[in-house]
Amino acid sequence: MKNKYDPIEVEKKWQSIWSERQYFKVLDESSRPKYYCLEMFPYPSGKIHMGHVRVYAIGDVISRYKRLRGFHVLHPMGWDAFGLPAENAAIQKGVHPAIWTIKNIETMRKQLQSMGLSYDWEREVTTCVPEYYRWNQWFFIKMFERGLAYKKKSSVNWCPSCATVLANEQVEEGKCWRCESVVTQKELEQWFFKITAYAEQLLADCDQLKNWPERVLTMQKNWIGKSVGAEIEFEIEGQNRFLSVFTTRPDTLYGISFMSIAPEHPLATVLVKGTPYEKEALSFIEKIKSEDKESRMSETGEKEGVFTGSSVIHPLTGEKIPVWIANFVLVEYGTGAVMAVPAHDQRDFEFAKKYGLPVKVVIQSPEKDIAAELPKGAFVSAGLLVNSGSFNGLHSEEAKGKITEHLEKKGKGKSKTNYRLRDWGVSRQRYWGTPIPMIYCDTCGIQAVPETDLPVLLPTDVPFKGEGGSPLAESKSFLDVACPSCGRPARRETDTMDTFVDSSWYFIRYTSPHSVDQPLDSMNGKFWLPVDQYVGGIEHAVLHLLYSRFFTKVLYDLGLVSIREPFTNLLTQGMVIKDGAKMSKSKGNVVDPDYLIKRYGADTSRLFSLFAAPPEKDLDWNDQGVEGSFRFLNKVWNLFLTWQTALAKIQSEGKTSTPEGKMLLRKTHLTIKKISEDMEKDFHFNTAVAALMELFNSVTEYVAVPAKVDKALLKFTLENFALLLSPFAPHISEELWENLGKSEPIFAPAVRYPWPSFDSAELIAEEMTIVIQVNGKLRGKLEIPFQSEAEEIKEMALHDPKVREWIDGKKIGKVIYVEKKLVNIVVH
Predict the structure, then answer these.
(1) Spatial separation of the C-alpha atoms in residues 804 and 826, rounded to whole Å
(2) β-strand 822-827 against 767-774: which pairing, if any?
(3) Mean pLDDT throughout 121-138?
(4) With helix as H, strand as E and coil as C, how does 206-219 read?
């Protein structure tokens, strides 16, 4: 070993060995139990950040640990390579998206490799290459054949100046991010995946995900949003048409004082036509359509509306009910219309109060007078029905069913289960994405591209102007095609797929990354799937995970996979925080991982990120903490260096006869037990690293008197220390292991050094350390037999020579003994 720890030299050496000898290549074998560990793959922006360092270090520790436990580990990496940033770079810098993306991938791959991550790079997946996106197109066609992919009109963000559709992230404060024109909503034909067909499965199977964070499961369930209620038909006065409403509170039907419909509702313009309110209403509709939908749904947002001039007929009382257009009603939810019951819904209450609309109490509380309480807000709890005709006196829960049955008999309504979940809109008017494999023929209609013609390649002859819709429409060589059915001239679809399609099955492709004739090899898929441990950010808790679950269920029904859920265990790591805020360029609080690795090494960077906080919690960045981790590794290096020669020819042995040796041996076994448990239960890496540091301190104390050192025991302890350290700081661990005289590296596949095991017999202490305090201050220690009695311990404490000088000549008040920990002598 060199006299000074040089992390750059050590890490370069071991990364070369691991790479050249292909230590992490996944072999085709099934003799060992499998373990599939996966971190969410990154978008190739060109630079890794500390969030990457943290999440990939977490995944690497798990993978290396499982290897040492004898598992056949799949730990792959790839690139979520389609997306808007590459297209923006093409518009702004004149660089083709493919060139920009591949260059960024090369840069980020080198950065990840410098971290010493145990990836099988031969399984690397890049979603923007035809070999990958061909299967996106194949899946699309299969869904189209099953009615799971369809086209319909949908509202999109539209910039009238650029004449293009904008993604939500391109709309900033209601304006186009590029030209700052006011963004409007426009109806366009869009492609959808019918995820709602799997709504009940997606919801019910949440109960199978026992090892997912409860927070994530709650978010998934809320997004799916199952509601049981009634769909009620309200006849529009003077017109031969009906307004449909879904409600979970049919018990409040008699309390309706007005109806609210979304500005985008197809009947909105019909209801205002020819009324004195038409001009005002149409102006309001256009105004609200340009507003952000999330702010419209906000509980605290201002409730706005306009009267349509039309009414509907109450299905049970025959009463005329005015119809209003309201900003807080969205056409995507329910039927886009709401029966407003102000006395029993807070949102309706605020709206009614603002516009002077009636408030009718139909649910009464046994404890208080609801009418008297109304100035404070709506009463939304259960109670007894009042002012509800023949249903008076029923409890509201019972009344829900009774009123729904009555509506069904009259042909005015029916019970219904509704979902908040809406079908997944996958159309994007962009270039840098998977071309949707559909063809439009004036004679034959919509046709799927024949499978033999896949992949439909992205053309290279497109201009990147940032305006005028999809760039693919500008490529005549792409657009013009013969109809696959009749051979007449036809045109291709010019939309590309949402990039969430790419990430919804990439974990499946890793099992067969080089498969040419099929998206995955069924045997490989059956062996590796599901993913045993998935690691990624909480920001993907809904859409990415929901879409991945949907895709897995569709592929199961297609007979391609044998699993219905893709991820057995999920770990959502916390953010990296600096100066009280999440690291970001805009806040100027970014720490460059390249700088960190060049100065301290990858092992220090990994160790700090793992030690500073539990993986699921936010990590507060601390420069002193990084320095501390670096100092620790230097101390470890120096201790091994000091004893290298003395231990060179010594055979390690896990037993000893000296009291000091027995204490170290026990500490070694305790540490093995502690770290093993921390690695298996909730991945408490921070406490595992702390236990390693404690063991190191014990070793340091043990070797303080070299003449008393049992060299065979010391070598045994240092061997176990190197193995325990190896998942966290693999480069230095390999170097320490080599310098203990080992012929093969720790992670050599042919050797498979086992994870250390502890001996339960060695955990039983023969002696214990008792701290002695005088008036609460440390004055001495006792090393005494473990079975010593309390009174005997007190006497030994009072007669300890170091303690006598603090109590002689003073009056002893009392002697307090805390079992197996301390004695506190109180003197006056």
Answers:
(1) 13
(2) parallel
(3) 98
(4) HHHCCECCHHHHHH
The pLDDT tens digits of the residues spanning 682-703 come to 899 999 999 999 999 999 999 9
Asked if 155 and 200 count as a contact pair (C-beta separation under 8 A), the reply is no
Question: What's the rounded Cα separation, in Å, for the pair 812 and 801?
Answer: 16
3-state percent helix, strand, coil for the chain, nearest multiple of 5: 40, 20, 35
Q: Tell me the β-bridge partners of 155.
A: 187
pLDDT of 275 strictly over 70: yes
Q: CA 727, CA 676: separation in Å to the nearest integer?
A: 12
Amino acid at 743: S
Summarised one tens digit per residue, pLDDT across range 629-655 is 999 999 999 999 999 999 999 999 999
Report residue 230 as tokens.
């009634």
Q: What is the DSSP letter of 514?
A: T
> What is the Cα–Cα distance from 35 to 55, expressed in whole angstroms?
18
User: And the tokens for 55?
Assistant: 């999440």
DSSP string, 275-305: STTHHHHHHHHHHHHTS-HHHHH-TTSPP-E
Which band of pLDDT confidence, cut at 50, 70 and 90, is reported for residue 681? confident
Cα atoms in the 13 Å half-sphere on the side-chain side of 411: 2
Q: Which of 712, 723, 728, 776 is nearest to 745 (CA)?
A: 723
Strand order of the β-sheet with 34-39 is 72-74, 34-39, 531-537, 567-573
- Whole-angstrom distance, CA of residue 492 vs CA of residue 470: 12
Q: Which residues contact 129 (CB under 8 A, 6 or more apart)?
A: 81
Helices 593-600 and 623-647, packing angle to 10 deg: 30
Q: Which residues contact residue 753 at a Cβ distance below 8 angstroms, ignoring those fewer than 6 apart? A: 68, 723, 744, 746
Q: 303-319 b/e with 16+ CB inside 10 Å = b? A: bbbbbbbbbbbbbbeee
As to burial, measured by CB atoms within 10 angstroms (0-12 exposed, 13-18 middle, 19+ buried), residue 96 is middle
Instruction: Kindly report whether the peptide bond that precedes residue 455 is cis, defined as omega within 30 degrees of 0.
Output: yes
What's the farthest any 2 CA atoms get from each other in the chain? 113
- Cβ atoms of 272 and 281 within 8 Å: the answer is yes
Letter string b/e over residues 414-442, b meaning 16 or more CB atoms within 10 A of that residue's CB: eebebbebbbbebbbbbbbbbbbbbbebe
Residues 666/715, Cβ–Cβ less than 8 Å: no
Determine the pLDDT at residue 169.
60
Q: What is the pLDDT of residues 550-583, one digit of tens each?
A: 999 999 999 999 999 999 999 999 999 988 888 8
Closest CA to 659 of 757, 788, 768: 768
Contact 118, 726 (CB under 8 A): no
Distances (CA, A) of 144 to 62, 151, 792: 40, 10, 83
- Whether residue 605 contacts residue 628, with contact meaning beta carbons closer than 8 Å, is answered with no
Q: Alpha helices, DSSP H only, in 69-120?
A: 84-93, 97-114
Q: What is the length of the chain?
A: 828
| Residues 758, 746: Cα–Cα separation, whole Å | 19
Strand segments, DSSP code E, in 292-391 are 305-313, 320-326, 337-340, 363-364, 384-385
